[in-house]
Amino acid sequence: MVQKNVLEKVLVFDGAMGTLLQEKGLKPGACPELMNIEEAVKVAEVHLAYLEAGADVITTNTFGANAIKLAEYGLKDKVVEINQKAVEIAKTLTKDCHCLVAASVGPTGQFVEPMGRISFDDIYEVYKEQIGALAAADPDLILLETFSDLGEIRAALLAARDVCSLPVIACLTFSGGRTLTGVSPQSAAIVLESLGAAGVGANCSGGPEELLPVIKELARNTKLPILVQPNAGLPQFKDGQVYYPLGAGEFTKVMEPYFHLGINLFGSCCGSTPQHTRVLKERLRGFEPDARETEKGSALASREKVVRIGPNLLPKIIGERINPTARKKLAEALRQEDYGLVQAEAEVQADAGAHLLDINVGTHGLDEKMAMKKIINLLQQNILTPLVVDSTNPEVIEKALKTYHGKALVNSVNGEKASLNAILPLIKRYGAGVIALTLDEKGIPKKGEERYLIAEKIIKKCSEFGIPKKDIYVDCLVMTVGTDDLAPSETLKAIRLVKEGLGVNTILGVSNVSHGLPNRGKLNAAFLAMAIASGLDLAIINPLDENMLATWQSASLLAGRDERAANYLQFNSQEVEKVHISIKDEKPSLELVKQMVIKGSRDIVKVIETLLAEGLKSLQIINEGLIPGLNVVGEKFEKGEYYLPQLMLSAETAQKAFAILEKRMEGSEKVSKDTVVIGTVKGDVHDIGKNMVAVMLKNHGYKVVDLGKNVPAEDFLTALKKEKAQVLALSALMTTTMQEIPAIINYVRSHLPDVKIIVGGAVVTSDFALEAGADGYGKDAVSAVKLVEVLRRN
Asked: Is 694 in contact with 758 (CB distance < 8 Å)?
């Protein structure tokens, strides 16, 4: 095992494994990891080639050696044997040199809830088994690579931390600056560092030019070592062969900008060879990375959005409205598991300017754990605003932190010994931020100095658990001025003491100051301004209260915390729309149906039923409501405004509506479009993208016959004939299986020359599709639907 500081050296990692194993006889569709057992010499030859080329780190042949992936080959019971043998092969070659062995761990091919069906706990156990087997064979580090789902890589990273003390480098794969699920580089850096990664990075993801903006953002958001391993360009198809365009010399030349980003870990991915490693190693001889500047302040994050908090930064707003206390309608909706109101409250607060959203589900007659899980899963699909988990129940908090694919803020811990010992281990384990309430077994002290002492005690305890100051947010607590004239001034004094003496962020539930008094808004606004002047960093308020929002804007500017008045001007220019209306409040209409599809609203069923009761026809609702909404979602997806989670939520919303409308269709309305047969080609066991294409086609009125994955040419032809289908859609994710596409096209065309054929998949390009003889290329689910629409008109 190596120490984490070894990763601070300049290291060159090896390159592609799969393509080199293909050259040594790996057949398309065969399990590469099985070669660790059956053809260990060939695996060793690949490692040796990279070592001879100068690699400092070689990566085990275990990328897909988890139980889920191996089950596709009937090898689920071989997880331990395959993984341990792989490490043994690599370590035998490095025992007499100073080179390191990185144990490779890749994604399962399944999304974690809410985008998939597998739970955090189940995926965690899958990785615990694989990484446990790897660690037992004593590699030097764990390399998590080519992940696209932040929920999945979080589970893998936690599993690695639980089964071993090896340093872990966590890498995702990006396209257009985001992962498939919309994860931003900034969020990835914040979340993975908070969970204890020893390094972060990006691999695969096209060539060096495509990855450069991603690595720049990673470098701005973490001081951890950063690993970059791009492909040797995008795969091309020529003369019946797949090849990558960037040779070793050109690859290293295109890598040149990376050498000025302050990063120190380099390698290559798909399409690369030992020669790429050799040339890269030579370029880096004597190389010393530049120092790099990172963003200042504490950070909380959703899957896509990072919120920075700090003394010289704009004070941030936490929306307080998702709390059933004194809100009977919301409490009843939670008990009935009717989360449409929660979704609407989240949307309207985010639109009004809330930087974070507090989620509290504490009401009687409710399973708080399950309610918190369901609400977080719903909101994190289409709400970019980071979340605050508002509970003091350790079980509820842990369920929430497992579920959330970001870095959450937990509200809260206090100075009581029981609270500290129950909550702080969860904060450390899941890399969250924590609100520290200045109360203890004796209650809330009257004096600010006493509250300071409790804050000091909590911070000291956090340090014992390894929780850094930047993740602590002290709440100095305000009592109502109605019962104590000096209560607000003591709170303000405590805020100043904490900022000056402890150097942590502060937070406050502002409206408590006016409890029991008339015209509360006046007092709340005045106190908010005073708190900001005293150093408040986070204010828990109602962002729909225009007076509070105006006070926050003005006080932040006057306190010198709104650089160049950027925030003030944003909210006070003539173009700003100041009325925030929830779709929950709108009258049922076709336009509302469209907006509900765009937002993925849970309440669409009620609106559809109302419109049907008013006499509207199913086909009219589909053509003038659902389809226009899906078209807008598609446009947002193509522009990079929406990513897979939003796309899936909108698709699910449309499906619910279609299910009702189909039952109510009259005979003349039942007009079906063409039939599409879809499947993943023989030898390929990946189907995430294919599944999304199928869902989107169904939502646009097509009959879809999904043959699944690993489908031979003969089965495609049989289905096309049986269903009298007009379109065939083929998918391939791996370079080892994409050559099946032209073979299937030729086979089908020889029997059914008039069938339209479209192709897609992670490794497929437009040029490849045309060269293979397809009628078109769908880069994603949205473009695939558009392509089918065009083909059916021609």
From this structure: no
Helix (H) or strand (E) holding 593: helix 590-599
Quick one: tokens of 629? 């909404």
* H/E element, 242: strand 241-243
| Amino acid, res. 792 | R
Q: How far apart are CA 230 and CA 97, in angstroms?
A: 26
Extract the tokens encoding 199.
Answer: 């390094």
Radius of gyration for the chain, computed over Cα atoms and rounded to the nearest angstrom = 28
Q: What phi, psi does 358 have (nearest 5°)?
A: -80, 130
**Distance from C-alpha of 65 to C-alpha of 86, rounded to nearest angstrom:** 10
- Determine if residue 173 is left, alpha or beta; phi over 0 gives left, psi from -120 to 50 gives alpha, anything else beta: beta
Classified as helix, coil or strand, 103 is strand
- Structural element, H or E, at residue 356: strand 356-359
* Local structure of residue 136 (DSSP, 8 states): H
Enter the tokens of residue 167.
Answer: 């340093």
Residue 247: C-alpha distances to residues 202, 231, 271, 409, 654 (Å): 20, 11, 9, 47, 46
Amino acid at 366: L
Asked if 725 contacts 675 with a C-beta cutoff of 8 angstroms, the reply is yes
Q: How many CB atoms lie within 10 A of CB 347?
A: 22
The rounded average pLDDT for each run of 10 residues, N- to C-terminus, in the chain (794 residues) is: 77 95 89 97 98 98 97 96 98 93 96 93 98 98 97 98 98 94 97 98 92 97 98 81 89 97 97 97 96 94 97 97 92 93 96 97 93 97 96 97 98 97 98 98 97 98 98 98 96 98 98 95 97 98 96 97 94 61 73 93 92 91 90 88 89 88 71 84 80 86 90 94 94 80 94 94 84 90 89 79
Dihedral angle, C-alpha 12, 14, 16, 20, nearest 10 °: 140
User: How much is the pTM?
Assistant: 0.91
What are φ and ψ of residue 214, in 5° steps?
A: -65, -50
Pairing type for strands 316-322 and 538-541 reads parallel
Q: At 723, give phi and psi (nearest 5°).
A: -90, -5
Burial class (CB in 10 A: 0-12, 13-18, 19+), 77: exposed
Q: Is 260 exposed, middle or buried (0-12, 13-18, 19+ CB in 10 A)?
A: exposed
What is the reported pLDDT for 579?
46
CA 508 to each of CA 223, 447, 495, 527, 592: distance values in angstroms, whole numbers, following the listed order: 30, 16, 9, 11, 37
d(CA 638, CA 616): 32
The H or E element containing residue 705 is strand 703-706
DSSP label at 178? B
Q: Are 552 and 540 in contact (CB under 8 A)?
A: no
3-state DSSP assignment of residue 707: coil
Which phi and psi (to 5°) does residue 486 adopt? -95, 0
